[in-house]
Amino acid sequence: MQKHLLNRRHFLAGTSAAAAGAGLTLWLPRWARGAGSGSIRHVILVFLNGGVRWMTSFGASDNIKLNPWGRLPFDLAPPDQRDHLMTAGTPWSVSRMFHLRPMSPRDHTFAQAYAKLTSTDPAHYNFHQSTLQRWPGSPKLPTLCQIANQISVVSCDAYPGGPALVDHGAGMQNLFTGSTTGTVGMATLFNKALKGRTRLPAIAVNSPGFALGAGSYAQSRPLVLQSPLSLPTTDPGKGMSEWARKFEAQLDAHVAQSRPGFARQAIENFALDKQLGDENVRTLVESSLKIATAPFETAFGNLTTGEPLTNGMLREVFGVSATDIDSGDILHDAYRAVNQPSWVNNPFGLSGALAVRFLQYGSPVVAFTLGSFDTHSGELIDQSRTLPNQMIQFARMLTGLEFALKRIADPDTSGTLWDSTVIVAGSEFGRQGNGIQPNGFNTGMGSDHSREQFFPVMGGPLKQTGQLLTDSGGRAYHMNSLWTAMLEGTGTVSDYLRPEKFAPIPDLFKR
Amino acid sequence: MDRPLPRTTSEHPTEPRPEYSKKKGAAWLLPVLLLSCTSEPSQPPASTGDPKPPQMQPAAGTPENVIDRLVVPLLRTGGREPTQESPEVLCRRLSIDLNGIAPSAAEVTQRCIGRTPAQMVHYFMNKPQAVNVPGGEAPYVYVGRRFWSEIFAYRVIEYDLNTTFYADVLELDGLVKKLYEGTLSYDRFATEALIAPAFLRRFGFQISSIDTSQTAAAAVRIFLGREALPSDAVDLGSLWRPFAVQNVGPTQARAKYPECIYCTHYAITVRNGACAGNEALLCQSTALGPIRLGPLTAPTVPTPGLPARPGELTGATATELRRIGELFVKRREFAEAIVDRVLVRYLGWWASGVYRPDYELPAVRDALVDHFIKGGYKLRELEREVLTSVLYTQAAALRAGDIAEAPLWAHGPTKQLLAEPYLDTLAAAAGVDLGGCDFRFAAGYNAQGVFDQRTRPSVSYTFPVTPGFDAGTYVSTARKLGGCAGGAEKGEPAGLVAAQAKREALLRICNSPQVQATLVPKLEGLAPAQGLPKLLDHQLQLIFGRPATSPEKALWLMSEPEACAGGRCDYKQVGSQLCMALFGSSTVNFY
User: Fold this and answer.
1) Is there a smaller number of Cβ atoms within 10 Å at the N or the C end of chain B?
2) For the ranges A29-43, A65-79, A310-324, which has the lowest average pLDDT?
3) Residue B539's closest CA among B564, B521, B557, B561?
4) Could you read off the pLDDT of B254-298 as tens digits, one per residue?
5) Euclidean distance between CA atoms B202 and B164, whole angstroms
6) Across all residues in chain B, what is the average pLDDT?
């Protein structure tokens, strides 16, 4: 049994200070950058909090007990949204949940809502493509089923063939760091792989677990923000003179020099945090990052056509508030079902918009945590939170990312941000549980923890698109095989994730 | 110890001592990287206000201490005599760890210099009150309670008053208080805590659903110090089946808890008839040994209209439910977990982060576990044993000739100040009251710094605030540094946001007239050469109870030309900048 002693207060002692021990002694991670940069230059990591019921969404089963929503009847979709039907190989199964209008307990009993899960009435579905009025030419936003052929889904597991990992804490640590005792977060890992080619460090929004870093990774820890709304508003460094800052840095160096290696690196990390903060706060206070509060016309960067990208355009494409989008948008259905017809600051949308901005500013990695997917009860209908409500918000964010990244110029290349960005979403475990009844729900009309995971992946560097990815035996990959494949896609190798044991998923990304 | 050694302090690496630094044969001495003394600024004349000459101190380690009996021979095997930390530095270490604030200058002089570590520990463990602790409570007990509030995660979600009802928190916090007062043994504490509503409510017992495997996983994590196997968590979770969540409504709740201002009470109750009849086979587990809870009868309800709370149970039902805790307590890993927790808390490096061969000392754990069990699970005794041991009391700084790669246990602890000790130390040095926060409740200031009276039970602590300061600064800064209860802006003690949060707070505090009045002495008319050293000494005296060390002074004097242009200084402005530099530096932030 593994010891699990890290807690938040222990962060300093455990992670920061431990860095030195690792870096200076026995554990010396090999790190090699490839001769040329890989196709991946940006990564967006999305943590869907609480354990997602993947088999009702991205790994849609046709077994009612596993997926009471069933698979999407593509013939109900408009003809121009059925491209995924043409996907060769092993296409991933799209759930009906993504397009069935979410239902509310105000006008549905559970039985009525349940009956609609097999509906073929087009009125019960939403395939509307929102018109983006604030974008040049008023283009249409794609729907989830329309971009399904650009997403691949990785069937994965924390311990294929081993015990199920269905505890929140252990599952999160495993997801964030590659093992239940891991000390390097994936955002840190990818930041180490990619920094130096970008202008901002990696950013972890409400995802400190992705931002852990020990040993030689400590200095690659991302900048951590508590929420998309917690960006600094002032530059406190301006009030401190250069000489005082220099004196402070000299004191830091003096104290660090006086300590043994283990403590020394903690102190050096402390100094590094200040240094990076001082360097980057000037960017973080920019109004173009204040998606929720800055004037809509605030602009930063350009589309590939040369037009500036405004905050208002990002608000619209991500549906940040009810008033930002047209009335047919599926987000309205999702929010109405949980009695919030006039929402503001949709966290999924706000995070998506902020991620785009950070990529524009040069962050190699953006990680954020979204949702509350621990749906032990009230999964189908509930006053405040249902699985469809959240899954549609997430899908809407994916369509927004697909649309926006393809049109935004990468300031560091001649291409688009889409060309060099990989988006991955994961959770600490899946949902199903032993208590599932034949109708597909437990006695609380929800589902319980289970091991099956299906992580959606998309982006320009993705080589295999539209696929359900399993190993050659049709089994789930180890989760780390996805991470090692992504590292490979960056043109980097690190033995932290032990690629010799967790071989990269073959040919997942372009070289 | 057979001979005294010269004093060494974190701030004063001394001359090389070849008797250990050049000794061959110790595995950890292989890459001998001598700390270069030549890089240190030369010692200025004594007339510039140097600290007192080093005093002779006995070497660390006592044969009575169970840790020392093991570690001192280990150190000697490596060719090293343990060197006791200077009293000033050890005083600060103990005061921050045990009382949550740096010691005052008077405490350093009167309670630490010339005292043994055991005497210092005794003083700080039994200090009756402190400026950073509300209600005249003993700071050691208060800081211990705050420490456990993190473990039990009383409050993590802003404004979600249902996650942990305040009365439940008071009950569990009361158990922690007894633990640190020494009136409740740790085994009894665990037995009660495992059926406390605040524990259940936070781990698995939600309003709309109950997930007892989460309860079991948390119980294993907290009291056995490891992750439960999923199958074990499910199996153990059956033991909490007698409990349920019941909405009793605000009116009834307020009738019982008049202090509750914004009160919706979802009570954790014991179901009458649980584990009986058809359920007889449900309330059993084998993960920690076979156990089956018998039929349970909720006793007469003390307050009409409200369900019986676990804390109110007596008689056979209470005895039956306490069997859950007894299942944990009888295991050796139960004692191992708390020993680890204490060692992690006070040493910083123990079993932390990435594994390396010396990141713990299993023999030390074993010895402490035996000592703890034999002594009757007394937490105070366990802590005293650790705090007076060579692992805690030896010098943290490298001695000249030391190697950076020495085993982790070859030096005393170096840790970073957590949020509340940082802000409380800053306030004390600056001579102002910055406020504080009640570690039990997130109530008070929300993420936007707006106070919501509804969220604050009338039993909340209050903290004085000097006029001119905004109490929200304390709460907001502390939260960004990982302290204070509250969810929305909860941060980590390290990281870029923490660094910027400190910058922002120091900008406000160090530039305030009240703080300038304390931190900047009357220096008008003095030339920079005279005024600047006095300014540095003055601030360090307020922060550490000592004047500047030679290296600090040398570094400071190198800054002079930029700080004071044209041979004249605006000492208020320089003093504010110095305040920001010192409180932003590792000198203050690490101890």
Assistant:
1) N
2) A29-43
3) B521
4) 777 777 666 666 778 888 889 998 888 889 999 999 999 989 887
5) 6
6) 82
Name the A residues in 334-393 with CB < 8 Å from any B CB.
376-378, 382
Helix ranges, A49-98 (H): none
Name which of A3, A9, A378 is nearest B351 (Cβ-Cβ).
A3
Who wins on pLDDT, B425 or A2?
B425
- DSSP designation for B150: H
The DSSP 8-state label assigned to residue A75 in this structure reads G
Instruction: Provide the angle, in degrees to the nearest 10, between the axes of the packed helices A479-490 and A186-194.
Output: 20
pLDDT tens for residues A373-415? 998 888 999 888 899 999 999 999 999 999 999 999 998 888 9
> What is the Cα Rg of chain A in Å?
23
pLDDT per position as a tens digit, A289-344:
999 999 999 999 999 999 999 999 999 999 999 999 999 999 999 999 998 999 99
Structure tokens belonging to residue A174: 């495993």
Q: Residue A250: which of B208, B228, B555 has the nearest Cβ?
A: B555
Handedness of CA A210, B200, A453, A319 (dihedral sign): negative
Longest dimension (CA), chain A: 74
Interchain CB contacts (distance < 8 Å): A and B: 293
DSSP-assigned letter for residue A14: I
Q: What confidence score (pLDDT) does residue A136 get?
A: 98
Q: Which residues of A touch B489 (CB under 8 A)?
A: 226-227, 230
Separation of CA A309 from chain center:
22
Which chain A positions have a beta carbon within 8 Å of B562's beta carbon?
Answer: 241-243, 246
Optimal mutation site among A3, A26, A212, A229, interface B, most CBs of chain B within 10 A: A3
With contacts defined as CB-CB under 8 Å, which chain A residues touch B500?
Answer: 232, 236-237, 277, 281
Portion 284-343 of A in contact with B at CB < 8 A? none
- Whether A329 and A128 have beta carbons less than 8 Å apart is answered as yes
- Is the CB of B208 less than 8 angstroms away from the CB of A376? yes
Which residues in chain A touch residue B552, judged by CB atoms under 8 angstroms apart? 251, 254
